[in-house]
Amino acid sequence: MEWVPAPTPINEKRRAQATEKTGIIGTDQVYLFDIYLEIAKDISGYEGGSFSLYDSKNQCSISAIGFEKELHQKNDKADSICSYVLLEKNPLVVFDLKKHDIFKYHPAATSGMCHSYCGFPVRNKDGYALGTFCLLNFTEVKEMSSEKIELIEKLVSRLALQIDTQTEQKELTSQKISKSIDIFMDNYRDFTLSDYKNFIDICSGLNLPEKDATNLIHANLCEIRNMTVMLSSKGNELQEKMNI
After folding, report:
1. Which of 67, 84, 167, 231 pairs as cysteine with 6 (C-beta 3.0–4.6 A)?
2. pLDDT tens by residue, 155-191
């Protein structure tokens, strides 16, 4: 027999959209997630682990420990044991891959590269499986107590909460920026996005050259004090109105 890829989740379109909404794939956030793998590795005694997110096509590596994995590496979901974890509500625990009806045909098992596997679905607050948190043992079959599995489940829940928090914060930031642009452009319809950026830079305390603030100065939003472009009282009022 040959390796049989995992079936597609019934909510795949919404699941993939929820994953892409996090904005994590393709970003350098390894340092935020390595710690979870390190703790899980210490708890389990397993030799390696990985955290991946799944978009509509690929298994996207976010973090890995115990083996070499290229940053931002993407693999076909059909090639991955972890794809089966997306279908589960509970951990998928296979202490001996060679004895599993499906996984014994996977190249990782037939080659002897991996002997034991424990996969935990990473679910967001809406219940969508965004990805997988997997532990692997390479040199021998290694079991894990139910107590340790429960501890790692709690750890993965904390990881999922962090992702939810990041996603919500990203959405709030996007909404805040969008609203501030609307207020700025409604009040000054002849201004451009460059003027908006310059105004934000000044609000942030950056030292903006006078030539870049010409439009803002003419609109009485800024003034020169001690050879530095500063917000005027009118500019301060607009900043407060924009809530930035």
Report:
1. 84
2. 999 999 999 999 999 888 888 889 999 999 998 988 9
220 phi/psi in degrees, rounded to 5: 65, 25
- Distance between CA atoms of 191 and 221, rounded to whole angstroms? 12
- Identify the H or E element spanning 109: helix 107-110
- Whole-angstrom distance, CA of residue 49 vs CA of residue 46: 8
pTM, 2 dp: 0.79
- Read off the tokens for 158: 């904390």
Q: CA separation (Å) from 140 to 1, 98, 104, 119?
A: 24, 11, 15, 17
> Measured between alpha carbons, how far is 76 from 184 in angstroms, rounded to an integer?
45
Indicate the SS3 state at residue 239. helix
Nearest to 184 by CA among 173, 195, 169, 170: 195
d(CA 183, CA 189): 10
pLDDT at residue 174, rounded to an integer = 86
- Cβ-based burial of 58 (10 A; exposed 0-12, middle 13-18, buried ≥19): middle
Residue given tokens 């996984």 in the structure block? 103
- Rounded CA-CA distance 193/225 in Å is 25
E runs forming strands in the chain? 48-54, 58-65, 74-76, 92-94, 116-123, 129-137, 222-225, 228-231
Q: Among 211, 36, 219, 93, which residue's Cα sits nearest to residue 50?
A: 36
Indicate the pairing of strand 92-94 with strand 116-123: antiparallel
